[in-house]
Design a protein that fits this description.
The protein contains four helices and two strands; from the N terminus they run E-E-H-H-H-H. By secondary structure, the chain is mainly α. It has one domain. A two-stranded antiparallel sheet has the order 1-2. The protein starts with a strand and ends with a helix. The C terminus is likely disordered.
């Protein structure tokens, strides 16, 4: 799918428009990162000391917590396209499951025997 801006593709944009879009994206992304850090710090300092008696944190400690929790709960993402491989694996499993069904079982999409409408 092509990216459109007023019906024009990226290739037809002028060099100045491309540069402006890139700069706006970088500045906007940095602004959102700073804002997110302050929101995270505000939430921690508003909730954790009152609920658990934990100390207040600063901006960079909040980002440290965010990075640490990302590593612990999501992983580092160093598997090289793991999401794409996972989607492919799930698609293959769904296709194999579809091949194993008999025609009278149907599918959830066609309102067959295993559709949600029959369970209600």
């Amino acid at each position: 799918m092509k990216s459109n801006m007023n019906g024009k593709g990226w290739e037809s944009w002028s060099t100045g428009a491309k540069a402006a879009a890139i700069v706006a994206g970088v500045v906007g992304g940095a602004g959102l990162a700073v804002l997110f850090g302050f929101v995270l710090m505000w939430l921690w300092n508003g909730l954790m000391p009152a609920i658990f008696g934990l100390p207040r944190i600063g901006y960079w400690q909040g980002w440290g917590l965010l990075i640490l929790s990302s590593i612990l709960f999501k992983g580092t993402g160093s598997h090289g396209g793991g999401n794409r491989e996972e989607r492919k694996r799930k698609r293959v499993i769904r296709e194999r499951m579809g091949e194993c069904r008999s025609p009278e079982e149907g599918t959830a999409d066609d309102g067959g025997a295993d559709g949600d409408a029959d369970r209600a």
